Amino acid sequence: MYQLSEKQIDFILDDIKKRGIQIESLQQNLLDHVCCILENEMNAEDDFEKLYSNTIQKFYKKELFEIEQETNDLLTFKNFYFMKKVLILSGVATASSFVLGSVFKIMHWPGASFFFVLAIGMTSLLFLPLLFILKNKELKNVQEKLVLASAIIVGILYLIAVFGSVMHWQIAKPGTFWLITIGFSFFIFIPLYFFNGIRKPEAKLNTVITTCLFVIFMSLQFLMIRLHPAQNQIDGAKVEQSAK
């Protein structure tokens, strides 16, 4: 069996550090694993650096520091993988509830309201908060975290506005949630997204294009809710009558 020299071991350790591994215990564990593999597979006539390069690539998909990120996730969230499973299951359950609610609504079957309320509840209270928690851990920049938080809020408001309209919920004046959603998007979410992305040279084009799409979509949404003032007045009258 080949015996690595002190110089070769130092080379491996330095390279592991340069690749972004900062946790000392993780450095030593990786060093031990790599050294064991090299000593078992290497011969005296082999090119050490070439064999090492091929060996270290087996430990990651894109970059070696992915291992440290996953380790930090596991140390920070003991239930990290459980939360990911719950996120996936809640996403599937939410999508299924939306589909069932839509079918029941179209067919005029009883139970559509139940599925819509269930879908909105799971999305707002489980799926989107879990998505924020897991994605927030991956972000290092405060501005990016603010963009993510504002996007989650827009998503929750949009869900309430859409299904409040579909189910004719009279929990506020007609169009209130639409105006809140569109206003929050125009004055908070879209500016945060734009100014955060435009600072990155590699993301400028995508940021501009995506921002334009956001503005167009929200403008069309605003146009749609203002196209039927008469219906809004009728809905308002119904609210007043029911209150009496």
How would you characterize the overall build of this protein?
With 244 residues, this protein is an all-alpha fold. The protein has ten helices and no strands. It has three domains: 6-70; 78-138; 142-228. The chain has helices at 6-18, 24-41, 48-56, 66-76, 80-106, 112-138, 142-166, 176-198, 204-226, 229-243. Helix 6 (112-138) packs antiparallel against helix 7. The mean pLDDT is 83.
Concise structural overview:
By secondary structure, the protein is an all-alpha fold.
How are the elements arranged and paired?
Layout: H1 6-18, H2 24-41, H3 48-56, H4 66-76, H5 80-106, H6 112-138, H7 142-166, H8 176-198, H9 204-226, H10 229-243
Helix pairs in contact: 1-2, 5-6, 6-7, 7-8, 8-9
Tell me the distance between the termini: 91 Å
Number of strands: 0
**Biggest sheet architecture:** none
State the shape: elongated
Radius of gyration: 27 Å
Count of spatially separate domains: 3
N-to-C order of helices and strands: HHHHHHHHHH
Structural class by helix and strand composition:
mainly alpha
Number of helical regions: 10
Approximately how much helix is present in the residues? over 70%
The average pLDDT score comes to 83
List keywords for this structure.
single chain, 244 residues, mainly alpha, 3 domains, 10 helices
